[in-house]
Amino acid sequence: MEENQNQTEAQPSEVISEVASPIEEVTAVPEHVPEEATNDYPKIEEKEVPPEEIKAPENKNSFFLSLHQMALDAIWKRRRQKLEKIMIFALGEKKKGKPVTNDDVQMLLRVSDTTAARYLGRLVKEGRLTRTGEKKGITYEFLA
Length: 144
Description:
This protein is mostly helical. It has helices spanning 2-8, 12-19, 35-38, 60-96, 102-109, 113-125; strands at residues 129-132, 139-142. A two-stranded antiparallel sheet has the order 1-2. The N and C termini lie far apart (95 Å).
């Protein structure tokens, strides 16, 4: 029975040679594409930059340092916006007579418990909020 299987099965090299065909090079536009369709695309002009206009940075790391500084500035800007959002919320809660809690900030900014605590701690350190209570009863109030 094994002899019959060996006789009917094709060798891998035979299968590949039957399936594979030489690749034909496409050098012309197919006949079904009109001539006008190939000319619709705008021509891109390549400008050569004279060698004297190409300047290497004085310090190779200066480019990366400036990118790093730009990234840090963006991070600080977003963080400052979140702190201002907390302050606006705290002012609204003060008008209602309610203190701000960590859970309020978590829901407001959609951040973790630790991040909310970090933001609130920062505002307390800056003197913009006061912290009252301990452990699970900690609340924050807006300072006028």
